C-alpha cells in the first residue's frame, strides 16, 4: 500500500499533463455560438450613414454576412479588401460597427471603400453582447429566414470564404 502512495504524484502529473495537452490542442478560432440555428436577436440600432433604424427584420429575405468590425481593429483592416471583393461579387454584407466612434467609422469607409449593404452602429456594444461577440473581426452567416447559421472568429480571406463560409452561405440561400 505504501508503494502505491509513491506513485500518486506521478499519476496526478500525468493526468494534469493530459488535461493541459487537450486544452492546448483546441483551435482558438473555433468558438461555438449559442445562436447557431436560432434567429438573430431582436434589435433596433441606427444606420451609420443615415441614422435610420435597422432591425433584425432587415437581415431577412436573402442569405447574408454580418461582419463585426471597428476602426481600432488591425485585423479588420487586413480583411477589408477581401470584403470589398465579396461585395463586388454580389454577396450582401451587413457591417456591425462595434464599440466605435461613428465619425471615425464613416471616415474609414470613405477612405478604404464600403463593402456593406448597410452598417449598423453599435456604439454601446449591445447587439454585439447579444450575439456573443468576443471581439473584432467576427463574421456571422445569416440565412434568408434570419437564422444564424455560422460564426467565424478572425479574418475572412479567400481560403476562409471558399472552404468555410461560402458553403454555409449557399445552403442558407436555399432555405
TrEMBL record:
Q: Which GO terms describe its cellular component?
A: outer membrane-bounded periplasmic space; plasma membrane
Q: Where is the Thioredoxin domain?
A: 34-170
- Which CDD domains does the annotation name? TlpA_like_DsbE (cd03010)
- Chief localization class? membrane
Asked if the record carries the keyword Repeat, the reply is: no
Origin: domain of life? Bacteria
Note the InterPro entries from the entry.
Periplasmic_diS_OxRdtase_DsbE, Redoxin, Thioredoxin-like_sf, Thioredoxin_domain, Thioredoxin_ResA/DsbE_sf
Protein name, UniProt field: Periplasmic protein thiol--disulphide oxidoreductase DsbE
Amino acid at each position: 500500500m505504501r508503494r502505491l502512495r509513491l506513485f500518486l504524484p506521478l499519476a496526478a502529473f500525468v493526468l494534469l499533463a493530459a488535461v493541459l495537452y487537450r486544452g492546448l490542442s483546441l483551435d482558438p478560432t473555433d468558438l461555438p455560438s449559442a445562436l447557431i440555428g436560432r434567429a438573430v436577436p431582436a434589435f433596433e440600432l441606427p444606420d451609420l450613414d443615415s441614422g435610420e433604424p435597422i432591425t433584425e427584420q432587415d437581415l431577412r429575405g436573402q442569405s447574408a454576412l454580418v461582419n463585426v468590425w471597428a476602426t481600432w481593429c488591425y485585423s479588420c483592416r487586413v480583411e477589408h479588401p477581401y470584403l470589398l471583393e465579396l461585395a463586388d461579387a454580389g454577396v450582401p454584407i451587413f457591417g456591425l460597427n462595434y464599440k466605435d466612434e461613428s465619425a471615425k467609422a464613416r471616415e474609414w469607409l470613405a477612405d478604404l471603400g464600403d463593402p456593406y449593404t448597410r452598417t449598423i452602429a453599435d456604439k454601446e456594444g449591445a447587439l454585439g453582447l447579444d450575439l456573443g461577440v468576443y471581439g473584432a473581426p467576427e463574421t456571422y452567416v445569416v440565412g434568408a429566414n434570419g437564422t444564424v447559421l455560422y460564426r467565424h472568429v478572425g479574418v475572412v480571406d479567400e481560403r476562409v470564404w471558399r472552404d468555410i463560409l461560402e458553403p454555409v452561405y449557399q445552403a442558407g440561400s436555399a432555405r
